[in-house]
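Sequence design from tokenized structure. All designs in this work follow the same two-part layout: the structure record, then the generated sequence. An example of the structure record is given first.
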């Protein structure tokens, strides 16, 4: 009887262990499938479009793979154009730099085509910056993809030593260094510096192509709104239009 009981107990233990193995899902190479999935997710994020990174947080990512040409315009672009970014919380007047002509021209062309109209500020961090320019933010059904959108081209970096991340500076988001060693900029996503101290570490890594000349209080008000764990405003803040000031 003791021998039979021992055999029955051993059989039960083997069955339980087998069931546990099925629930964990061991992959063909012997590793835990849950761990494999986590690793894959991390890899995908690191290969995407990075947002300006705070010193204490990993950057969010945006997927921008195809490099094409910027939209064309027949109207000449002045050397240092001034534009009004009209948001649902007020107007921000900005000047674009002549030292960064590729970014300047691209921004003006997109604005003239109405590209930014209706786009939301999808990443807002008080003491750091406010970010916008993703066309996917027009669609709330694609909220999980916010931060991944753009016009499917990049812009070569235009780093200028004298152009820093000062209060109100305008700079371009870009892909992470691991997949973008040339630090090329996103075709449309940009951010406005709310804190010079908070953004100082970005100098020389992200192209600064303009500055705010009026509307600093609007920047502060946007930066101060309540956000969720992903730094998204709880209530939508949109760009109504971006137009050149004559």
């Amino acid at each position: 009887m003791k021998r039979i009981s021992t055999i029955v107990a051993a059989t039960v233990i083997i069955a339980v262990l087998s069931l546990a193995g099925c629930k964990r899902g061991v992959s063909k190479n012997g590793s835990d499938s849950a761990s494999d999935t986590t690793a894959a997710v991390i890899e995908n994020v690191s290969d995407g479009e990075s947002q300006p990174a705070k010193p204490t947080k990993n950057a969010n990512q945006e997927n921008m793979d195809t490099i094409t040409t910027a939209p064309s315009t027949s109207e000449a672009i002045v050397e240092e154009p001034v534009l009004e970014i009209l948001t649902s919380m007020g107007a921000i007047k900005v000047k674009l730099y002549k030292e960064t002509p590729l970014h300047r021209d691209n921004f003006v062309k997109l604005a003239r085509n109405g590209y930014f109209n209706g786009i939301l500020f999808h990443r807002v961090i008080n003491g750091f910056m406010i970010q916008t320019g993703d066309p996917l933010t027009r669609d709330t059904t694609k909220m999980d993809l916010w931060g991944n959108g753009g016009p499917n081209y990049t812009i070569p970096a235009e780093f200028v030593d004298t152009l820093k991340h000062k209060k109100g500076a305008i700079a371009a988001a870009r892909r992470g260094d691991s997949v973008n060693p040339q630090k090329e900029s996103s075709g449309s996503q940009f951010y406005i510096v709310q804190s010079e101290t908070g953004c100082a570490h970005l100098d020389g890594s992200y192209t600064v192509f303009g500055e705010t000349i009026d509307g600093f209080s609007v920047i502060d008000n946007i930066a101060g709104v309540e956000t969720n764990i992903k730094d998204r405003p709880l209530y939508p803040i949109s760009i109504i239009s971006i137009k050149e000031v004559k």
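Residues 22 and 209 are 55 Å apart (CA to CA). We note this feature because it recurs in several other targets discussed in the main text.
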